[in-house]
Amino acid sequence: MKADAAAPASPVRDFYEAKYLAGEEIQRTSKLYTLDCVPAAGALEIIDIGCGTGHNSRAMAARGHRVRGIDISEHAIARYRESGFDGRTMDIERGLEFADESFDLAFCSEVIEHLVRPERFAAEVRRVLRPGGRLVLSTPNSAFWLYRVLAVFGWVVSDVQHPMHLRFFTRASLRRLLEGAGFRVDTALGRNMYLILPDPRLEALRSLYRAVGLREEIRFTTKKSFWHLSSRSGFWSSLFADTLIFAVVKDR
Fold this sequence. Notes:
Rossmann fold
């Protein structure tokens, strides 16, 4: 599928241009768990979709893979290329500008929720993968227990997730989308999050949080710290997973 010659206005593009001008990406444990689904060794041809400035690409390249990246932000791609990667600015809503069967693996961490037509995107990813190729994908879980609690008080997921999220997924709806595009689900896991606490500010309490296994993380919207008790889970309940992580295969 070839992109059109003229790029239409895009609020998502404008948002991310401003983001990458303002500062660094925030690497979260959910993305690290997603990276765990990429083979630890080998020389796969990988396309990093929504590559940003290259956090995930660097991790995959360190394993011996050959990685190319695409992103909607020109600023992100400029910084991505500074790291020595082959990067291209591309609006994936308009198609992937690659030949059929170009890649062994597509990595797509927390991108699909920003798309108007994720079904079209899934079909495009399948097109550019070789037979036996894999798509490793993560996205927020809209059935997460915290969102269910907030719903009691009148909040819906679009109120509390990223302002540029356009589509919302549960484990079941994500599986339907991927299987409908012709993929076979090989791995379905998540980042289970059992407890969320605000930053206590007091270093003594922070030390206690670390001692009991809580992790500090930065919120995307406010850039403030919070602490959570979480784990990568292979047998998980959609109630506890705040992030869905799937690895799917193109069988033919």
